[in-house]
Design brief:
The structure holds 2 protein chains of 2 kinds.
Chain A (H helix, E strand, L loop, with lengths): L4 E7 L2 E7 L5 H8 L18 E4 L2 E4 L12 E3 L12 H8 L9 H14 L5 H7 L11 H17 L1
Parallel strand pairs in A: 1-5
Antiparallel strand pairs in A: 1-2, 3-4, 3-5
Helix pairs in contact in A: 2-5, 3-5
Chain B lengths: L10 H7 L12 H5 L15 E7 L5 E7 L1 H5 L3 E6 L10 E3 L5 E3 H8 L4 E2 L5 E7 L2 H9 L2 E6 L6 H5 L11 E4 L2 E6 L2 E9 L2 H6 L3 E9 L11 E6 L5 E5 L4 H12 L6 E5 L14 H12 L3 E4 L2 H7 L6 E9 L5 E13 L6 H7 L9 E9 L13 H19 L3 H8 L18 H10 L1 H4 L7 E10 L6 E7 L5 E5 L7 H13 L6 E5 L16 H28 L6 E4 L2 E4 L6 E3 H10 L5 E6 L7 E11 L6 E11 L6 H20 L30 E6 L21 H13 L5 E2 L3 H11 L1
Parallel strand pairs in B: 1-16, 9-11, 12-31, 14-15, 18-19, 22-23, 29-30
Antiparallel strand pairs in B: 1-7, 2-6, 2-8, 3-7, 4-5, 9-10, 11-19, 12-17, 13-14, 13-16, 17-18, 20-28, 21-22, 21-27, 24-25, 25-26, 28-29
Helix pairs in contact in B: 11-12, 12-20, 13-14, 16-17, 19-20
The chains are: A alpha+beta, B alpha+beta.
The structure holds FE2/S2 (inorganic) cluster (FES) (2 copies).
């Protein structure tokens, strides 16, 4: 077994240090070492987006990033989304639109939605469908998810 | 973006009648699920927990000659290794699995872990528990298995041939109730007959005869199976499982491991989708045995490849269909043969396919022959309206072909032949009140259908669907708290918002806001027996149990108030959360005040309810789809989609729409892309989400929904199960739309670009 790697990163605004095996993915580190189980594993090979997190401002699948790669980086996960004033607008619009059924894809979609609206605050239905094509949902047929992301746009504008 | 519409013929009446039902509250478990706090199967962490991994067969069909685990056991970090030899001998025992009925135990044990034979690629043969998942995976590579490879049987029709290689030497066909004398891959042949088929065909002006095939497809839930077991030295076993039925897991593990149910507690975690695939057990007994051997908790989580290779797909199928109609468009006769793949062990859902096939129509003369056939694929599991899409696809495609021949509007054909209350179904049971015709009328009159579709290579398809739904046993426990809220423990695992749709029914009875009901999903020690979350039954049956609990609390409160006021309880009523006298002396007290008073006096108000409703009735839907076909690439684009469905009574319309939309999209995936691709050796070649192509957001438009409400007389609020039927019409609707777009009918699923191009070039 290879020696563990020492990693320092910022996760959800907090400085974090951990040791991980070189073969461990960021998703494993988040879930197993840091106990941040909000990011889900649906496929472990970059095909479902259930593990979506934002790494230095970029939306990534945590299952195909190595834990050791995030040294010095900033990571945002679903656990960091709630602010002092409560739920993030996307969390709220997902609830209001019934945009989740089983909910296992939800953390990934909310992180994907956040990354999109940061880049493109007035994303259209087409933009959202294109951007979210890396996130699978088997329950909802996507209709209510797309609506929830659109509904969050004005609220995020106001927040700015 | 098209608006989602709700069409409710009795809307104003409902608005007056109900305060909670028909509203769209935020679900009680919502915050947990949007913050990442909800604990799903793989999120369980226990002190000292080990990680289990399963070794799987690289062959589709082989005898297992020996398994040597010595080297794996010696690896540093490995704490236990197991094989099928660690299970008690199943002998000829059976297990009762509720919706799935009484099943022999041996195939169930063998499916969890092969003893003498592997019957599909990915079949489990051994398992390891180690201190990390990576060590467990390394250990699997050290296990030596000697196989005698046998020829695989991959096609349902080939499997039925006399000289086909046999999967099981001891499988004899149940031939119309008689055991055959020779072993075969055909587990059973059964039949429904109605009327006189020859007379029916004699009365027809047009007769068609066609073959239809469905590929093997998977439920595709995003959360892989996960089970954690902690077996204590005193013999008590606790399991945390992502499952559609905690009690079904308890029964299965109890039977397989022969441990008393009293020593086995199953705690259902949140569940990341199931669609029928999370009813059977796979890693659960394995985690338990590994935990007993290692004397530590063990978590067994599948990866995606394992999910595809070894769990649930639904039956691939072959359907031969002959139907006759008159010039006026009346169906006179239908004759069909259904052959469904069961996978490696008997038990496909062919009988449900048979029952549903013509149920949207009144067909007086019919013969349905059903064959359950084993092939070297994973043991099939239920998948949303199990069995119905395969058979109804055939019927709905042929009906559309008749409509074209007769130049008749597909809605008119359906209104002419549509099933009504009292019509006899193929198994001889009359339909109860169903909303078949109402649904078709709503579909015919909707804006989508009334708007002409224009443009080259575009076509509109229509198809209907029926699903039987289920009743079965459900339980809840409710308790009034001192602040007037009600804690509600539900026996049904919640896959899509049912905590709330159940709680709403209790809230309605008491006239309190649904926010004052606090629902949770209980473990097997904490609530009465409850069957699986399946059969579209949870809002229907568990909701009914909650309704009864509400009624019981209601009468207890009335009794208590009557006692305080020293009046007869007949002179006290409860409405809108307030208990009041009706004898004119205008005494009243809110539930909150009375609850506080009773709680101070130490009087417990609550109720335990169990129901097993019998007259659940079926579900009916009609769908409309517009497609555009690219003649060069064969790609089919869904332009517009409307699903119309009878919900009986939509308790929480958003989640009813969600079920309709989700079912439609699974049906579209089934229609256009999804299939298990096996090579000649029977190896599954596409066991990833990249290669098993499920629809993404980019593949779809908004899915419009129209909810029709024809109250179900078999439920206090008129609820009808809604979850499953929406997966039934899409396959035929899309095929019919392609036919109208480019003039070629496709009877084999999926209608992938290759197939479409092939059909187009064959035509030209
Ligand atoms: S788990 Fe990372 S993309 Fe599926
Ligand atoms: S809500 Fe279940 S996968 Fe999206």
């Amino acid at each position: 077994m290879a020696a563990k790697v020492h990693v320092t990163a910022t996760i959800n605004g907090e400085p974090v240090e951990f040791l991980c095996e070189p073969r461990q993915s960021l998703l494993e580190v988040l879930r197993d070492e840091l106990k941040l189980t909000g990011s889900k594993e649906g496929c472990n090979n970059g095909n479902c987006g259930a593990c979506s997190v934002i790494l230095d401002g970029l939306l990534v699948d945590a299952c195909i990033v190595l834990g050791a790669e995030i040294d010095g980086c900033t990571v945002e996960t679903i656990e960091g989304l709630m602010g002092p004033e409560g739920l993030h607008p996307l969390q709220q619009t997902f609830l209001e639109n019934a945009a989740l059924q089983c909910g296992v894809c939800t953390p990934g979609f909310i992180m994907a939605g956040k990354a999109l609206l940061e880049k493109k605050p007035q994303a259209t239905e087409g933009d959202i469908r294109h951007w979210c094509a890396g996130n699978l949902c088997r329950c909802t047929g996507y209709d209510k998810i797309v609506r929830a992301i659109i509904d969050a746009e004005p609220q995020l504008e106001v927040k700015k | 973006m098209n608006p989602t519409q709700t069409m409710d013929p009795a809307k104003t009446e409902v608005e007056q009648k109900y305060k909670v039902i028909g509203t769209r509250p935020i679900r009680h478990d919502g915050v947990d699920k949007v913050t990442g706090r909800a604990v799903y199967g793989a999120d369980v962490q226990l002190p000292g927990m080990l990680h289990g991994k399963v070794l799987r067969s690289p062959h589709a069909h082989a005898r297992v000659k020996s398994v040597n685990t010595e080297k794996a056991e010696a690896l540093y970090g490995v704490k236990a290794v197991m094989t099928a030899a660690d299970f008690p001998d199943a002998g000829s025992r059976t297990a009762n699995l509720g919706e799935l009925g009484e099943v022999p135990l041996k195939p169930m044990c063998d499916n969890v872990m092969a003893s003498d034979k592997v019957v599909y690629h990915g079949h489990a043969v051994a398992a390891v528990a180690a201190t990390s998942p990576h060590i467990a995976e390394e250990a699997l590579k050290l296990i030596e298995v000697e196989y005698e490879v046998l020829p695989p049987v991959m096609d349902v029709l080939k499997a039925m041939e006399e000289d086909s290689p046999l999967l099981h030497d001891d499988l004899y066909t149940d031939e119309l109730g008689e055991k055959s004398s020779k072993p075969s891959n055909v587990a059973s042949h059964s039949r429904h007959v109605l009327g006189d088929i020859n007379q029916g065909f004699a009365a027809a002006d047009h007769i068609l005869e066609r073959e239809y095939r469905c590929a093997t497809v998977h439920q595709g839930y995003i959360e892989p199976h996960a089970a954690t077991a902690m077996w204590n030295p005193d013999g008590y076993l606790t399991m945390w499982v992502t499952t559609q039925g905690a009690f079904t897991v308890r029964t299965s593990v109890h039977q397989i491991l022969e441990i008393p149910v009293s020593k086995l507690k199953v705690i259902p975690t949140e569940i990341g989708g199931g669609f029928g695939g999370k009813i059977p057990v796979y890693g659960e007994p394995v985690a338990a045995v590994l935990s007993r051997k290692a004397r530590r908790p063990v978590k067994v989580v599948m990866d995606r490849t394992e999910v595809f290779q070894a769990t649930g797909p639904t039956s691939g199928s072959y359907v031969k269909l002959k139907m006759g109609v008159t010039n006026e468009g009346r169906i006179t006769a239908a004759e069909t043969m259904l052959a469904y793949e069961a996978g490696g062990y008997p038990g496909s859902v062919v009988s449900l396919g048979g029952i549903c096939m013509f149920a949207p129509y009144n067909v007086e003369n019919l013969t349905i022959d059903m064959y359950d056939v084993v092939v070297n694929k994973p043991k099939t599991a239920a998948y949303r309206a199990p069995g119905a899409p395969n058979s109804e696809f055939a019927a709905e495609c042929m009906i559309d072909e008749f409509c074209e021949i007769l130049d008749m509007d597909p809605m008119e054909f359906r209104l002419k032949n549509g099933a009504k209350e009292g019509d006899i179904q193929c198994h001889g049971i009359p339909h109860p009140r169903i909303g078949c015709l109402e649904t078709t009328e709503a579909a015919r009159d909707c804006e989508h259908y009334q708007t002409p579709l224009e443009g080259p290579n575009r076509g509109r398809g229509v198809a209907s669907g029926y699903w039987v739904n289920a009743g079965l046993t459900s339980s809840v426990t409710a308790r009034l708290n001192g602040d007037g809220t009600v804690t509600l423990q539900e026996g049904s695992t919640d896959i899509g918002g049912t905590r709330t749709s159940i709680a709403m029914q209790l809230a309605e009875v008491l006239g309190i806001p649904v926010e004052d009901v606090v629902p949770s999903v209980a473990d097997t020690d904490s609530v009465g027996y409850t069957e699986v979350t399946g059969g579209s039954r949870v809002t229907f049956a568990t909701g009914w149990a909650a309704y009864n609990a509400g009624q019981s609390i209601r009468s207890q409160l009335i009794e208590q108030a009557a006692a305080i006021w020293k009046v007869d309880k007949d002179q006290v009523s409860l409405a809108d959360g307030v208990i009041a006298t009706t004898n004119g002396d205008s005494k009243s007290i809110s539930i909150k005040e009375l609850a506080a008073d009773l709680s101070q006096k130490g009087i417990d108000i609550g109720s335990r309810e169990t129901v097993t409703p019998q007259n659940h009735g079926g579900a009916y839907a009609t769908h409309i789809v517009d497609v555009e076909v690219d003649p060069d690439t064969g790609k089919v684009t869904i332009l517009r989609y409307t699903a119309v469905q009878d919900a009986g009574r939509a308790i929480h319309p958003s989640y009813v729409e969600g079920q309709m939309q989700g079912g439609v999209v699974q049906g579209i995936g089934w229609a256009l892309n999804e299939e298990y691709y096996y090579n000649e050796d029977g190896h599954l070649m596409n066991s990833s989400f990249l290669d098993y192509r499920m629809p993404t957001s980019l593949d779809l438009p908004m899915i419009e929904t129209i909810i029709v409400e024809v109250p179900n007389p078999g439920h206090p609020y008129g609820v009808r199960g809604v979850g499953e039927v929406p997966i039934v019409p899409p396959q035929a609707a899309v095929s019919n739309a392609i036919a109208r777009a480019v003039g070629t009918r496709l009877g084999d699923l999926p209608m992938s670009p290759q197939r479409v191009v092939k059909a187009l070039s064959a035509k030209s």
